[in-house]
Amino acid sequence: MEEPLDRSTVWPYVDGDVGSFYYARAGHPNGAAAERALGELDGGEAVLFASGTAATTAIVLALLEPRKRVALASGAYYGTGVTFTELGRWGLQHDLFDQTATPPEADLVWIEAPSNPHLTMPDFEAAAAHPAPVVCDATAATPIHLRPLEHGCDFVLHSATKYLAGHHDALLGAVVCRRAEDAERLRAFRNATGAAPAPDAAWLLLRGLKTLEVRVLRQTETARDLAERLRGHPAVTLVRYPGFGGLVSFDVESGPAARAVETGTRAIVNATSLGGTQTTIETRHRWEGDRVPEGLLRLSVGLEPAEELWVDLTNALART
């Protein structure tokens, strides 16, 4: 049975006492149901937020203090560094490090598995051995391929907008905690700052989780096929693929060549974001600058037939 969508913002007290739900900013039935479902998948206690960035912000502001330092994987999603830089005005400090090696001294270690768009994997053993708590952004892996809490991490971050919801129609973030007290702290922070998810987005997440495994496994199968074919294409200079998941990045010779590819597809949509049922492609240099090569293209594989996508890619690559 589907969870009914409840858009209520208030619920009556029970004999003058606050019940399980009383005001939507503090929690609502759809959010609680989605948290239970995601927590079971990741093996911890989940807390939902209005977006992945809201979840990132909540972790550092709720669990750290001014002048504390975050060790951030250098290849991690560029928006994480943007958020940390913005919070620098409130005293947050962060340093970049190679996540395939030992993290430097810090109050919080932030890794990503795999990193976006470089698609490197962290050294989980080195991260877990660090005395500071460890956050793993597992947006691109999903619990189907990776459960970071089983690898010594303390928190799992998801931009649930991506694979978890899976249809490009829900903006949502999530943190899955190893310890119940951390989840309680994050919920208190969410209520105090108003970073709560909408019931509609939580309901859509529940819908997405029902098909998560079949979607992700199909995307992985197609992505493996396309990555192998791209490695043999003469216009492609480098292919990055971690061996699982629906995310591939590859380089062509220049920025203009990448622009020709992203504007030359027909079945593949030239758009940002990732993890939906429809395949998307974009050059990341427009957003990330010199952090990535000018010719880097990020391909988020959807559910279309592999041959259809390959024909579309080869036609676009012929324009370079």
Strand order across the biggest sheet?
A: 1-7-6-5-4-2-3
Give the rounded overall mean pLDDT: 97
Under CATH, the topology of the largest domain can be stated as Aspartate Aminotransferase, domain 2
Number of extended strands: 12
- Number of DSSP helical runs: 11
Strand proportion, as a percent range, falls in 15-25%
Give the termini separation.
50 Å
- The share of residues in helices is 25-40%
Q: CATH H level of the largest domain: which superfamily? A: Type I PLP-dependent aspartate aminotransferase-like (Major domain)
State the CATH architecture of the largest domain: 3-Layer(aba) Sandwich
* Main pleated sheet: 7 strands, mixed
Radius of gyration: 20 Å
Shape: globular
In N-to-C order, the SSE pattern is HEHEHEEHEHEEHHHEEHEEHEH
Poorly predicted regions: none
The domain tally reads 2
Which CATH top level class of the largest domain fits?
Alpha Beta
Structural class assignment: alpha/beta
